[in-house]
Amino acid sequence: MSDIDGWLLQVTSGDPRDGEQQVDMYAAWETSEDAAAALVTKTFALAEDQLVAVVDTLPAEALTKLGLSPGQACPFVEEAISE
User: Global pTM?
Assistant: First the structure.
């Protein structure tokens, strides 16, 4: 397996000038940043105006605690991996 198992991604939507900015965090079990961003975009049907940014890497152990298998994505729940 590669050194990187998955990614923590931030999805930002809305315009902060209108006070409507929202930030959501997702985990994706993909080895490349591009594949992880594409998986989150497809899985959660993100709109073109939603910005996806990679925040950090995640080890297989954390991804498993989130209930993921390779090729899957989910909303990131920090409490799930800190137990």
Answer: 0.88
